[in-house]
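S1.2 Input.
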Amino acid sequence: MWFGSATAMTPSLPCTSLQVIYQYILDRKVDIERELKAWEAQQAADASEEADKQRKDHDARIEEFVARQEGLSKSDLASRQPAGAGASKGAVGAVMGRRLLDDKGAHAADTSFWVPQLTPQAKARLDKPDGVVRCPFTNEPLKLKQLYPVHFTPADESASASDILSMPRNERYICPLTKKALSNVNPAALLRPSGKVVSMPAVASIIRKDMLDPFTEPATKMKETDIIPFRVEGTGFAAKTDEKALKVTKFSEAGRF
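S1.3 Output.
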């Protein structure tokens, strides 16, 4: 990967292109707005369904009250329904039966509920979407003010971007203090005040002595939180792999964060 000037990271987010981060935030905002509209539509449908149910219950109670006042029994109340209402189900069933015989199975979907493809599916329920854009790696809120610029030191200051990309990955960038190449063997850390990337051995032997950032003018006093270690990729060696970093904490849809 080419780490140009438009590169940033957070304590939890790996070093990433600013353009990628901006695009991810914009895409997530669009997704959140779409999910919120779908959830609001579901809520409106639930409210309409509940109101319709309450209206029917209210009408049934009124009808039952009137029947009691008139001294009618349930059978008398049923006889007051429109003619043919009780026989409608039988008529529909007879008509459907004749259709099934005539259409040679064209309407089998109406009755073949045991076929997996024709089984009625339960209506999916939507949870209220989270309105916060979160880091795809840690699920913590992702804010632009938490993005820190990152400045790498090329092994060859005169090399062009294409020349750097043609080099082996573990020989492209060096620590500006020790002049050693940055790699999994020689992991790196970000000094937040200056944005410079140095090696962890340089942090231990040089930076932590005075807790000053030597790349600012004047040198800036730092806290421990101003030293942000880079995430180390998994390797084929168990001793070099951080098991905590490999632990799965969240599942997401394929192709999406």
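S1.4 Remarks. The two ends are 20 Å apart (CA to CA).
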